[in-house]
Amino acid sequence: MALYFYQALSKDGKKIKGQIDAGSESDARFALTRKGMFPISIGTGEGQMSLFKRMLLGKVTIKDKILFTKQLAVLLKSGIPLLQALELLVEQFEGRLRAILIDIKDSVKEGSSFAECLGRYPGVFSNIYVQLVRAGEATGNLETILVRLTSYLERKLEVDKKVKSAMRGPLIQIGVVVLVVIVLLTFVVPKMAATFAQGGAQMP
C-alpha cells in the first residue's frame, strides 16, 4: 500500500484535493471513481507532499517527533522488526507525519535503509537525527539511539519553551510602546496642534 495524493472533481463539479491509501495508482483511481469522483491527477512523492503540506496536511511538530521516536524505540526494544513497527505506527498518527511514515514504510519494504528514508524529509528530520539513526543501523543499536534522540528532542522542546517565555516579556513591552506612540500621534498630538493653532502659537 502507498499514499497517493489526488485532485478530483465531485459530482457537482467542485475540485477536491486529498489523499488515499492504495496498492497502485490504478487502484487509487478506481477507488475514487467508486466514490463518485472524477480523478484529475494522482501522484506520490515529496513534491506532491510539499504541496499538500501547505493546503491539507499541516506540519510535524516536535511533540509528534518525540512521540514517534519514543514509540519506535519501545517497539524495537520489544523485539518487533523495524518494518512491522513502522506499520503499527502509521495507524497512530494523522496528517503529514502519517503520510511520511507510509512513504518511509513502503521504501523500507523495498530495501531502502531507514536513515536514507528519513533523509528525504530534511524539513522534518534534522541532519543530526538522520546521522544518528544511520549510526544506529550500522552498529545494530538503533533502539538505543532512538532513546537518546527522544531525550535530545525533549530537552530541545524545553529549551524552546524557555526561549519563547523569555521573549514574551520584551515583546509585550515593545507592543505597549508602539501602541502608546500610535495613540500619541493619532489623538494627542493633533489635539495639541489644534489648541496651539487656536491660540495663535506654534507647536514647540
Largest sheet: 3 strands, antiparallel
Structural class: mainly alpha
Query: What fraction, in percent, of the residue positions are helical?
Result: 55-70%
Number of helices: 8
Instruction: Note the beta-strand portion.
Output: 5-15%
Separation, N- and C-terminal Cα atoms = 77 Å
Overall average residue pLDDT: 81
Number of strands: 3
Describe the global form: flat
For the biggest β-sheet, the strand order reads: 2-1-3
Task: Explain the overall architecture.
The chain is mainly alpha-helical. It contains eight helices and three strands, in the order ββαβααααααα. Strands 2-1-3 form a three-stranded antiparallel beta sheet. A hairpin with a 5-residue loop joins strand 1 (2-9) and strand 2. Helix 3 (62-77) runs antiparallel to helix 8 (142-198), helix 4 (82-90) packs antiparallel against helix 5 (95-109) and helix 7 runs antiparallel to helix 8 (142-198). The termini are far apart.
Short summary of the structure?
The chain has 204 residues and is mostly helical. It is built from eight helices and three strands; from the N terminus they run ββαβααααααα.
